[in-house]
Specification:
The chain is 23% helix and 39% strand. With 115 residues, the protein is of the alpha+beta class. The chain is globular and about 40 Å long.
Length: 115
């Protein structure tokens, strides 16, 4: 049986297709994440998770989502302090690193979740 990863109290959720990521973003290792970063400005206790999923999943309810761990290719979690040091609030970009994007396949889905 596959275990599940559940996110609750979701403030922002963005789903991206690999084709949505510009070559310059891949080169810099930064993703457009305006809605996720805007939520952090209001609440410093929130975290952001970025997941590369092998396939899309559905939302359980308005403020929760569940993923099977076997469907997750890669995952990064950031707290407020890490984002402030590494990311650009003014440009609304989240620094995830170029190595994270190298795992990305054309059939994958990227989820950016603020919770």
């Amino acid at each position: 049986m596959t275990s599940k990863l559940t996110f609750v109290n979701i403030k922002s959720r963005t789903t991206l297709d690999p084709s949505d990521i510009a070559p310059s973003e891949r080169k810099e290792g930064r993703l457009k994440a305006g809605s996720a970063l805007n939520c952090l400005q209001d609440d410093t206790s929130l975290r952001i998770d970025v997941l590369i999923l092998k396939k899309s999943t559905s939302v359980i309810c308005d403020d929760a989502v569940e993923f099977y761990e076997d469907d997750i290719r890669d995952r990064k979690t950031y707290n407020y302090e890490e984002i402030i040091r590494k990311s650009s609030f003014q440009k609304k970009r989240l620094a995830i690193g170029t190595s994270f994007l190298k795992n990305l396949k054309s059939t994958d889905v990227i989820e950016i979740i603020t919770h």
